[in-house]
Structures are given as C-alpha cells and as structure tokens.
Amino acid sequence: MAKIREISGTSGRYWHRLNDGRLQCDLCPRYCRLRVGQRGLCFVRGRSDDEIVLTTYGRSSGFCIDPIEKKPLNHFLPGTPVLSFGTAGCNLACKFCQNWDISKSREFDRLQARATPQSIANTAIRTRSCSVAYTYNDPVIFLEYAVDVAEACREQGIKNVAVTAGYITEQAREEFFHFMDAANVDLKAFTDRFYRKVCGGHLQPVLDTLLYLKNETDIWFELTTLLIPGENDSEAEIEAMTQWIMEQLGADIPLHFTAFHPDWKMMATPSTPKDTLIRSRKIALKGGLRYVYTGNVRDFKGSSTYCHGCGEMLIGRDGYELSTWNLARAGATSVCKNCGAVVAGVFDDEPGTWGSRRQPVRAIS
C-alpha cells in the first residue's frame, strides 16, 4: 500500500473501522487496511481522515467508440457501437497487463477533464452509441462513478456493459451489477496458483462472481481467457475449465480464448501460437460448450458463430467486420434460419453496421 500525505476524493462505500483504528476497504477481496494517508493496492481508493474515498470520480483516461465485439461480446447487439471509457488503477497486479499504462498509472494527470454521469449518457446519445462500456481498467474499483453513470444511461435507454475481472466482494457485487445489461468477465486461468503467482489474487472470488451472474441476475455475460504459453494453456486446465463452465454456467455461455503478446512484466514470454487457440477451442467445443471463439488473431472460423443444432454459420466475422447473418426472430428469441434452433444472446432483428472503426470522442460536461 502506498503512503500519500494528502488524499481527496468522493466518499466511497464498502468499508468499516477495525479495532486498531485502521479502515478496511470491503470493495474487493484484497481487504486493504488503511491508516490516514494510505491508498489501497488499486491506488485510487485511499483513506482521508475517517473515511475511504475514491480519488478518480468523474475523471477518465479517455472516451472512444468501439465495436461491441472488441469487449469482446459476440452475442450482445452484434455490429453496434459502444462508448468505452475507464479511469486509472486496478485491484489486481497481473504481470501480463496489456493496459498497464492505465491500470498501473500513478500519474493522475493522465486522466482527462472531468465528465459527469449525465454528460457521458448525453455523449452516448449524441454519438448514437447503443451502449456504454466500463473498460480499459477494471470498473470495480470506480464503483461509485460507474454506478452513477450506468443509472444515468439506463434512464436514457442506453445499455451498460461491464468489462471486468470479477474480483469483487459479495457485499459490493449486487450494487455494481444492478444497472448492467451485459458483462465480459476475465477468467484469467483455472488454477489458484496462476492467480496468486501472476495476478496477486485468488480464483474463488471470480468463480463466485460468475455464479452470482448466472443464478441471481438476468445479465448477459461472456468469458475471456488470455492464454499464456506455459502458464495457463495446458490441455488439462482447458478441460477442467470447460467442465466447470458446463456444470455451473451452462453450454450457452460464450468463451473467448485470446492470444497473449509480451507486455509489461512478461516481456520474455513468447506470444501465443495460433495453434494453441485453435486447440483450446476444439477442447471446449468437444466438452460441450456451444460458442467458443479465438481472439487477438485473424481466424475467420474461430471468430464466427455457428448453430449448435445444424452447424450452419450464423454470424460471420472477419476481425470486427460482420458478414454472414443467418438469425431470424421467433417471438422474443433469435433462432437459426436453417433449423430453428434457439441462439443464446441479445440480438436485434438486423446486425449493426458500425464495423471495425475506433473513434475517439470527447464527453462534454
């Protein structure tokens, strides 16, 4: 925990006082215990006098309109634009972090001018974004800001998307996800050893979040696992992960295997071979999962969606560009045009046309 002389910010939630006078942050399973002037590992939550505050409320590292597939979400309003933003800091310490300049930032002057929750909702409307994504760094650590923005967006008919590692406590989980419509949860590996060694955390809280999303919410969610050579890419681990997902979450939960490239503290680790992604996808499909994807590589077959009933291609994807669209509407559900099998997800009658564009924008307060 970093010690800073003066800390200012917006009053935070989820903390309590310990008998020794320290304040314990109860937002995430790290349970940082802070004296006056100390910040938690996330760096953006710290103790100011007799409360824990969020120092980044209303401040962003930037706004950009992305394709929803970039989150990645393949079964949530395909082809539509999503207004994406983050702040700074993170409550995990992943050695492979590919957004480390944001998530590990200790320089708050990297953050842009303030943006109110209402201004972000207005920007989504102005840019015709169908949803707002809380991403780039984990939105769990800026819960108060994320919740206020999500509420403002919901009032305007804008969907909310959480891109998160799911490292959050039971106490905070319900409020954080209350206004979310979709989520991509980073299941970084399927061993506690990996979480401890590489991420400075534990696996079980993430599994608890996934069980919560499945059993206690109507949120559409997908999973992403970044495969790192020699760390979390063994056949045995992929098989164990697949079995758990099948038994606990069901066959319809999309799983994305994405390629690692050397970054931050793992520069000596080689990039993930494309064959590893293809092999892992085959294992997960053989294990019963219906929708398994490859990412961070060019793989038309691995990035496209297929019908679990007849094998027909439902949605063709070349990078973030959509081609084939073989979905039809049957009441409130979407089905395969060829055989009528129900396709899990949240789909419009027609695909969006945003494509692969990435468009920086400014949220005006």
Structural summary, described in words:
This protein is of the alpha/beta class and 365 residues long. The chain has 2 domains: 10-54, no CATH class; 62-308 and 346-357, TIM Barrel, CATH 3.20.20.70. 24% of the residues lie in helices and 24% in strands. The chain has 9 helices and 21 strands. It has helices at 100-103, 117-126, 143-155, 170-177, 192-199, 204-216, 235-248, 274-286, 300-303; strands at 10-11, 15-17, 23-25, 33-34, 45-48, 51-54, 62-67, 81-86, 131-134, 159-164, 182-186, 220-227, 255-259, 292-295, 305-306, 313-318, 321-325, 327-330, 333-336, 342-343, 359-361. The strands form 5 sheets. The chain has a 9-stranded mixed beta sheet. A 3-stranded antiparallel beta sheet has the order 1-6-5, with no helix packed on it. The chain has a 3-stranded antiparallel beta sheet with strand order 2-3-4, with no helix packed on it. A hairpin with a 5-residue loop joins strand 2 and strand 3. Helix 2 packs across helix 3 and helix 7 crosses helix 8. The longest helix is centred in the middle third of the chain and has 14 residues, at 235-248.
Give the structure's gist in a few sentences.
By secondary structure, the chain is of the alpha/beta class. It has helices at residues 100-103, 117-126, 143-155, 170-177, 192-199, 204-216, 235-248, 274-286, 300-303; strands at residues 10-11, 15-17, 23-25, 33-34, 45-48, 51-54, 62-67, 81-86, 131-134, 159-164, 182-186, 220-227, 255-259, 292-295, 305-306, 313-318, 321-325, 327-330, 333-336, 342-343, 359-361.
